[in-house]
Specification:
By secondary structure, the chain is mainly β. 0% of the residues lie in helices and 50% in strands. The strands form two sheets. Strands 2, 4, 5, 6, 9, 10 and 11 form a seven-stranded mixed sheet that branches. It has a four-stranded antiparallel sheet with strand order 1-3-8-7, with no helix packed on it. A hairpin with a 6-residue loop joins strand 5 and strand 6.
Length: 115
């Protein structure tokens, strides 16, 4: 399975941005992670196969929304009220085995938030 992430860019604090990640094959749980310069990769949000279960890092709860369109094999991350601390490379990840961990990763898409 290949994951193609897109949608990153340069925005100002308070702006919104939507990331997309298209999968080339069937996936189960999908998620977004991010890695800021000099920091370790961290979990941002995850979503179950039918989209009824979603999970968020405390730092993005209430601002970010993860969703998916299984017909398009695409997962989205709507990011609102962005702040400088959200600046990072954002990676999508997928589990291709039911109840399995993330075993496929996409390339990063850079989100830069200016003050």
């Amino acid at each position: 399975v290949q994951l193609q992430a897109s949608g990153g860019g340069l925005v100002q604090a308070g702006d919104s941005l939507r990331l997309s990640c298209a999968a080339s094959g069937r996936t189960y749980v999908m998620g977004w992670f991010r890695q800021a310069p000099g920091k370790e990769r961290e979990f941002v949000a995850g979503i179950g196969w039918i989209g009824d279960n979603t999970y968020y890092a405390d730092s993005v709860k209430g601002r970010f929304t993860i969703s998916r369109d299984n017909a398009k094999r695409t997962v989205y991350l709507q990011m609102n009220r962005l702040n400088v601390e959200d600046t990072a490379d954002y990676y999508c990840a997928a589990a291709t085995v039911p109840n399995g961990g993330y075993n496929y990763w996409g390339q990063g898409t850079l989100v830069t938030v200016s003050s």
